[in-house]
Amino acid sequence: MANFENCFYAFAIAFALIAAMPKKYYLETPIAKIIQILAPLTSMIFLFGSELKDLNFLFAFIFILISLLASINSFHSKNKLQDCSSVFYAGSAIGVVTSSNWLNFVFCWEMMLLGSVVLILANRTTRSLNSGIRYFYVHLLSGSMVMFGVANLPTSEFDNVIFANVNEPYTLMILIGFLINAAAPPFHSWVPDSYPNASPTANVYLSAFTTKAAVFALIKFFPSFDPLIYVGCFMGLYGVTLAMLSNNVRKLLSCHIISQVGYMIVGVGIGTSFSLDGSSAHAFSHILYKGLLFMTAGALIYATGKEKISQMGGLARQYPFIFWSFIVGALSISGAPIFNGFISKSMIVEAAHLLHLDPVVKILNLASIGTFLSIGLKMGYYAFLNKRAIKVKRIPLNMKIAMAITSMLCILFGLMPNLLYEILPNQAVIKESIYQPWSKYHVIHSLEILGIAILAFFIFKKYLKPKDKKINTVYIQIFNSICNILDSATKLLQGTAERNKKEISQGFKNVFASAFKDGRENSNEKNNFSQNLAIVIFLISLFILVST
Amino acid sequence: MNEMILMVLTGFAASLCIALSKNKHTFRNMIFITAPFLVLLQNITYQKDSLVNEIKIADFGNGLSLAVVDSPNMVATLFLYVASILWLFAAFYTLSYIQKNSLKKSTRFLSLFTLAVSSAIGISVSANLLSLFIFYELLTMATWPLVGHKENQEAKKSARLYLYYTLGGASLMMLGIVIIWKYSGNMNFQYANGMLQMVPSNLQKITMAALLLGSSVKAAIFPLHGWLPKAMVAPTPVSALLHAVAVVKAGVFAILIVIHNVIGLDLFFQSGIYKYVLFSSGFTIIYASIRACGEDNLKKRLAYSTIAHLSYIVYAGCFSLLAAVLHFLAHALMKIVLFMAAGIIQTETGKKKISEMAGIGSMLPKTFSAFTIMSLGLIGLPPVIGFVSKFQLLGYLPNGLSSIYSSIFVISGMVSAAYLLPIVIKGWFELSKTKKIKESNGMTVPILIITLSACVLTLLN
Hints:
The structure holds two protein chains of two kinds.
Chain A lengths: L3 H17 L2 H6 L2 H19 L4 H20 L6 H19 L3 H20 L4 H26 L17 H13 L8 H5 L5 H22 L5 H19 L3 H22 L2 H32 L10 H4 L1 H15 L5 H15 L3 H28 L11 H19 L1 H5 L6 H5 L7 H20 L1 H4 L8 H49 L7 H19 L1
Helix pairs in contact in A: 1-3, 1-5, 3-4, 4-5, 4-10, 4-13, 4-18, 5-6, 5-10, 6-7, 7-8, 8-10, 10-12, 10-13, 11-12, 11-17, 12-13, 12-16, 12-17, 13-15, 13-16, 13-18, 15-17, 15-18, 16-17, 16-18, 17-21
Chain B lengths: L2 H18 L4 H21 L8 E8 L2 E6 L4 H28 L4 H20 L3 H19 L5 H32 L16 H18 L8 H4 L5 H28 L1 H6 L2 H21 L4 H20 L3 H29 L10 H4 L1 H15 L5 H11 L12 H22 L11 H20 L1
Antiparallel strand pairs in B: 1-2
């Protein structure tokens, strides 16, 4: 990878410049923000000049693109720490997907942890502080697992390494590390716990990088590893269920990350070249439409100052722009035709269909229904349409620009799928010609899914009304109980240690009691200490010099 | 006279000059700064004269001599470089520390400080077990008054405890050395491999036990670690250079020498004594990490962390010398910065306890940035050299043992985060109404340079 360093260095220099900028200068001029936009632009130029291809190119491209859009989206906010850490985070995520050896990979993997933790902590609220610490520990575990596995690998080869089974402990460790970062249950709770507590503009970054870097790693190292199909199916349904129960806008969206990553993991597990392409394509589309949804959520929170769906309502009239961007995002995530979710999600479902994995197809369709039900209908209806008047303020222009560009990209890739299909690693769609996204069957199928979801919404409207429910308390309880165990272990050890130490030192004292009895009483006679010492040293050195 | 001897003697001569300097403080400080420069210069320009492998300073007959080695082996070279380079930084730090804190009896302090570091350098280049022992005890004798420097009740008590522990260890070590001397005659260890095999088999176990126990006092392995947290009453430069680098690393150096050169790896595994070493150091790692979580005094918490990390080196040193040596270097760099930062915090704000440290990051941004970066390194995260050494520590698979053995570092890394992260988060993110304090350059510049070099070392790797 000849020019990998150039992609990476653009972000490194931007980070250094922003970090070194004096605070006064930062607050008064928009230079830091411009640097933040310039970094992805320059590294985009480097990317097209470099020799990167296939999977690396695809992920590096979408990561750079989303960091550009996210920095436009956060142009108005003045939080220096957040700017620094977001540049850092984006740079290290790009490092993960473009690295050419194991040490580099693990290095960037751990850097990504640092960037994302600081990005969450930069919100500077009590809740973000607590969830940031929990996030740190979960990802430290993941990082250590990956590091442990990688350090014990028998081969130093990086490209074309595929782990087909987990018989060896190091392979298992690497897999667990990746799955923690991909938010697979039972390690999924860090997503809905920490993402809602970051600042709304930081969410666009957070939703894009960590989980998708894990998907990249799974595609690269664990293709066609069968158990991943079950993991993915479970994640798909589980994430949607959590999303239906949640009331907080951003918590709802972050639960959908789990569900959508589930689709990608199913694609990895199936493992044909077509399904792997499907996973990469879905990661690509997912980053775009999830970024768009988080942008709209951020705009809503900025405008109303409220986070819960039950406190919003009737915003479509006040904000037609946010409403239409939201509709684009919601239809994309549910896989409606002409939006980019349609062209990628149907690839994975088709891949499962081709191998006659009927239960998988059914589960994925069910998850699609749930997705449209919870995002498009529940959030759309209660936040935008249901009537209620609340005080609002204007949203800044840069947010609108970012949303407009992202929505256009979503529609562009939906209408011209070959743009995406040509940069996929295997180019299976073009080469094998077994699949046409715009075939009659697929369009009707996805319209069917949307229709069922609409029907279900009007039947179960009463139950879907947003209410406050705590959905990740178990995770926090587990964390707290681990802290309590550590705490009580500390106290126990301290108690026993004090007792034992007394005994041990008493024992030593007894051994030396006779030798030091006099010394203790004369301890205040140290006035001439330095002179005495000097004489002793002088004699010793004289002795040494004479004897040579 | 050989240059290697000159290098060892430079430090002793400087110590003597400082002790005799009376009230000429400028002269004294000049010598205090020049000594590490000279040693470092000699270190860099030294060219080995490979005809002889030991150069005698004093010959006591009967195969007993005080001698230095001509070309030190890997561990010794590293120890030599770490001690002499960090001595230079610590010297600048110490002078401003003394000035800021108006430390009493500073001449005595500086003289003993120089003496202690130069005996550590003596340990690293010593050629045979007797010279190792002599320098080792010189180090004890020089450090003991430094621990009790404040001369209050607590300091005196800790100094006495320090002496009990170290002299106890010394007498055990002496026993082992005498047995080896009696049966092997030649005690040159730097290129030896298993000199214990000449000792009759009924005495071998006693010798091994005596040597290992004796050297594990300074390496603070459970249950002989009690002196280290107590010794934290000493002024910060002592805790930083001596109790994070020189003294404890001398103990670890002695253990590595005993395992690899005196006992020899073959005998070490055959006799089954490796189980005890592994178990005790592994237990120390977990024990000290958990104890560190419960300490509220910053320096004591760091001391427990030191205990844990010394056992990392010993634990890894049983199998792979490379991982041990890397962590030897990494821990020295990281821990000296953490202690120096703790000293700056105490000097500038008077705060010793972690519970008082809310908002310390905005008060002392430079210092606390260095502290943050280095605590990340201690957890094993990039971009500090601790990442590389953790990678190496996790990477060795002991022959015939399952990889569960190296997973202890994963657990310990998590617990390290549990005792270091709260300080960092409290310092940066818990806001209290504080003003920014002007940090004195003499103290912050050394730690910033060390931090930067630790980061650069990782990136170059």
